[in-house]
Amino acid sequence: MVTAKDYSSPVRPTWCTGCGNFGIWNSLKKALAQVGLAPHEVMLISGIGCGSKLPDYTTANGFLTLHGRTLAVATGARLANHGLKVICTHGDGDGYGEGGNHFVSAVRRNIGIVDIVQNNRVYGLTKGQYSPTSPQGFVTRTSPQGAIEQTFNPLAVALAAGGTFISRGWSADIEHLTWLITEALGHRGYALVDVLQPCVTFNRRYSYDWLRPRIYKVEDEAGYDPSDRAAAFAKAQEWGERIPLGIIYRTESQPAYEEQVPALEAGPLVKQPLCTKTPEEYEVLKQEYL
Amino acid sequence: MTVNDMTFKIGGEAGQGVESTGRGFAKALVRGGLHIFGLQDYHSRIRGGHNFYQIRAANHDIFSHDERVHLLLALTKVAIEEHADEVVSGGGIIYDPALSVDETDLAGKQARAFPVPLEQIAVDEGGSKVMANTAAIGAAAGLTGFDMDVISGVIRDNFGRKGPKVVDANLKVAAAARRFVEEKFGDSFPFKLKKIEGPPRMLISGNEALSLGALMAGCKFVAGYPMTPGSPILEWLSVRSEEWGIVIKHSEDELAAVNMAIGAGQMGVRAMAPTSGGGFALMVEGMGLAGLCEVPIVLVNVQRPGPATGLATRHEQGDLLFMIYATQGEFPRIVLAPGTIEQCFEAGYRAFNLAEKFQTPALIISDAFLAHSPRALDMDALDFDVPIDRGALLSDAELDNLAERYKRHRDTESGVSPRALPGHPNAVYSSASDEHDEYGLICEDAVVRIQQDAKRMRKLETARAEIKAPLRYGPPEAELTFLTWGSTVGPLRMAVDLLNAEGKSANIVQIMDIWPLPIEKVTAALQGANKLICVEQNYTGQLATLVRAYTGIKVDGLINKYDGRPMSPEYILARRKEVT
Q: How many Å lie between the alpha carbon of B193 and the closest alpha carbon of chain A?
């Protein structure tokens, strides 16, 4: 039986004490164990940033790639071997900033990736600049007069782009986040798990104490139906005094991208032989040019 | 009378069917046993402008167009203005008097006028006006005396999917146009195309041959964003993806394309991302990831003149040093520069072998001229049974018996680390784009940095020893040696043939395996040259620069061109006089 311990590694994280990444990391390992996936059946793909170091600290197949390109690499990996469970872990700068186009495209594609975005609303590894999810007016080294742009709303953008599994977790609630990730792992297609995560060093404004009284779970709200897209849009706008967590929107009616690619009907691409055609079939190909 | 040695040129606006008509006629000539070389020239627009398609036909294999036109089919007045002066003495121009063309446009030209009411013939025969192009082919066949059965066969194939009615209408139109020409002009046109019996041949372009090579190598994943002139590779493989079991991903941009290829390559699938120079510029970032994490990928740059948008549909060889040097930090790469259709096929499969053997990006640098110009090839010119070499790839059985913890980036003498594909329980590893240790884990230690960087760069030397020597053409000893790369070798071959026929002596050294530059082999090939002239389609002479940097050999002269139009043999011969 797989346990969370199977995913532990002798490498110690470089994250600050109190960093929200610890909660996300532990939740992910627990979730993987719960669904019974062994480390060799999982492909963790990350980009660059504090959170993106997660695969380095975990025993599983891993690939730490380039800032912002996480989902593009993961898309190629998933299409090449859909026998492995592909999971991305990257921050808000990686996922929504540098990787914005890849984010919208991955959502539209409904490619079978669990996308865990470690959303601390700041650039931590580069020591404190504002990110796409930073609040308007947020004062940082690159926004000394306060950030002018409006805050990026990943849930609403994912909904608008046709997302099929859109959720939000909270790094301090490991039990809930573990459940959320297990649900995402069971989803058919692209699953967004946006995780609210304090950066204890560079985003003091957005702390555990600020978040804790505001968050609530949509599962606890009577009558909330995550299959209702209009209701999900409304829920995705909610921010401030009340911040919703949980599965904001979900539908299993859309096939995943890889389910619709003819070449993958014969199984994972990497398992298929390189070239199986006969000399006769080669000749047929040549006939096209006569 | 001249038989089977002529150039047919069709000129008109985008949207008038210049390409399809040209291709149809070229196909007919190849089926008639002739060799052809096709040259396309078009603007970056969907309608209007001026395009042409030029077909050089001969009894023997030909590697280039030249500047003489024997029969011009002018679909517009502009086509006459642009090309009438190219028509040789005794040559002719077919045009439709109903269009904006008339005999006054031809005043003072040595070309003979062949007015043919193409549209009228099409309509009279019960066809539509668009069949004027079919009438034009019929007229050209009539003037040149080319076999009508072959023309009819091509019409049947080209229009077959539109149903028998359309086929029959086109056949009638072509026959009527031919009758019109024969009745009106008799046998007066001195350039003839005569069917010859011979083995069947393929009419195939560089992009098609390169795609075929990739397909035969077992390329299973292709990601790309459309960019002329690279997109036909993406389209060619897309059309065949279902039958051949390939995953094609038309991506959101070239950043995604290269990174998707890297994702697929890391999992163990042979992956490619074709593009042009601007797209390649975006792929540079990803190429570094593949270099550092030792992921085999194949990138193709079908060059066009840059920078920026440049000349979108035209030809230049301006990206050679960019392909070799585009890098943040240092990592090994392979660069192949095919110059002929056969070499496109060869590069198309060899790149995958080299990428996997050295676990690093293998790049193919092609160009618009090579990509778009079809040539007739013997059926056995491309051997589809290509050699496959996956390099140091650990099998499941080897992994089952792995005695120690797997090291993805093991330090070895050759620099190549035995590769395990993700998914085996005995070889669970993570590979970081940060500098990493042998296991792939992030490591900033100075000693490890030196070990890993030196290991990667050592692969370049391993590859250099294995890479092929320059290709040679012409007599071993010559007064004049031309150094070249890429598609320029085509017109250069014809120029050299002409020089040697005149009693001068000239030969060619073509570098196809261009990076890592096989320094000793290049030095050996160039050392004895009496006079060395570099011929390439760019401003600065990039190959000449490269060769001088690594061998110390300085060329005696440079024949270059950067107007977006490929060199002709005549151009090379004229420039030779200037530089020698």
A: 19
Residues in A closer than 8 angstroms to B424, CB to CB, are 40
To the nearest whole number, what is the mean pLDDT of chain A?
96
| Region at B245 (left for phi over 0; alpha for psi -120 to 50; beta for the rest) | left
Buried b (16+ CB within 10 A) or exposed e, B112-143: bbbbbbbbbbbbebebeeebbbbbbbbbbbbb
Query: Among residues of chain B, what percentage have pLDDT more than 70?
Result: 99
Whole-model pTM: value is 0.97
Which chain B residue is nearest to residue A98, measuring alpha carbons? B255
When computed from its CA atoms, the radius of gyration of chain A, rounded to whole angstroms, is 20
Given this model, what pLDDT does residue A281 score? 87
Q: How high is the pLDDT of residue B301?
A: 98
Task: Say if A261 is an interface residue toward chain B (CB within 8 Å).
Answer: yes
* Chain B residues touching residue A45 (CB < 8 angstroms): 263
Q: Of A145, A139, A44, A54, nearest to A91 (Cα)?
A: A54
Within 8 A by CB and 6+ apart from B314, the residues are B41, B304, B305, B368, B564, B565
| Amino acid of residue B99 | L
Determine, for residues B423 and A38 on separate chains, whether the beta-carbon distance falls below 8 Å: no
What is the maximum alpha-carbon separation in chain B?
87
Give the pLDDT band of residue B318 (cuts 50, 70, 90).
very high
Average pLDDT, integer, range B153-166: 93
Query: Which pLDDT does position B109 carry in this prediction?
Result: 81
Answer yes or no: do B264 and A102 touch at CB < 8 A.
no
Separation of alpha carbons B404 and A13, rounded Å: 24
CB B269 within 8 A of CB A82: no
What average pLDDT is seen over chain B?
Answer: 96
Residues B170, B136: contact at Cβ < 8 Å? Answer: no
